[in-house]
Design goal:
The protein has about 290 residues and is α/β, with parallel strands linked by helices. Helices cover about 45% and strands about 20% of the residues. The strands form two sheets. It has a five-stranded parallel β-sheet with strand order 2-3-1-4-5, with helices on both faces. It has a four-stranded parallel β-sheet with strand order 7-8-6-9, sandwiched between helices. Strand 2, helix 2 and strand 3 form a beta-alpha-beta unit.
Amino acid sequence: MRILLISGISGSGKSVALNVIEDAGYYCVDNLPPNLLIDLIKTLETDGVKSAAIAIDSRSTHQLQNVATTIEQLRQLGHEVKVLFLTANSETLIARFSETRRSHPLSHHLQATHITDCNLSLTECIQEERELLSPLQFLGHVIDTSNLSANHLRNWIRDEIAVEHASLILMFESFAFKVGVPLDVDFVFDVRILPNPHYDHALRPLTGRDQPVIEFLETQAMAQELYDDILTFIDKWLPSFKRDNRSYLTIGIGCTGGQHRSVYMVEKLAKYFQQKERVLIRHRQTH
């Protein structure tokens, strides 16, 4: 069976992700206690279910430490198990809770179970949840949803589940340094040293996927040199990450606004590696 475990910080978009995955034909279960996971999978397998997505959150406080062992047991039973962990910076999470006017779900759980002081602030609940979920964060692929719209996240999740099984998925992600370095990248390359198309009024409204911007950057010798250096680095070390049994390797490419130079470089690198690897492309500041 294909099993997708979803976890992450409250407010980071788990419900959005689960809805997209359910629309893709997965049997979905929300907030399952991890100790019931193996029994659930056995039942679903008996019922002929081929793909299942299960959300696990911080309210299963005392069972989170056993999730890694449970995943290994499922794999030994022949199941394909992947983990998606959604997170976001605290500023984004606070803004989302303020917009919805909802309280943090962990505050009610802590009060009911008398784990700690029930008068925790929202910021304290977020920090407490990060600590509780830390055993899960690096079991699979981390997605930073900071400053992403719900529609943007839906598209990313669709891309995730559309990728067939591969030993390693290479992710190229453009971003804006003025917004901040994403939390989900493994390597960061800074392309702000390249001439900025933003200062050309004809190019300003375009992105690094548009031909005029591509032509502008292709005429810059240092753009080709930087591309060659980044490509050489990834090409050299990618086999080592495969041997380390990594499922994802995320390469972040940043420029000032995340619109021109970083997008151009991501598209150019992805085009090269798509010839031999499973590649996903993400642009945080463009659609």
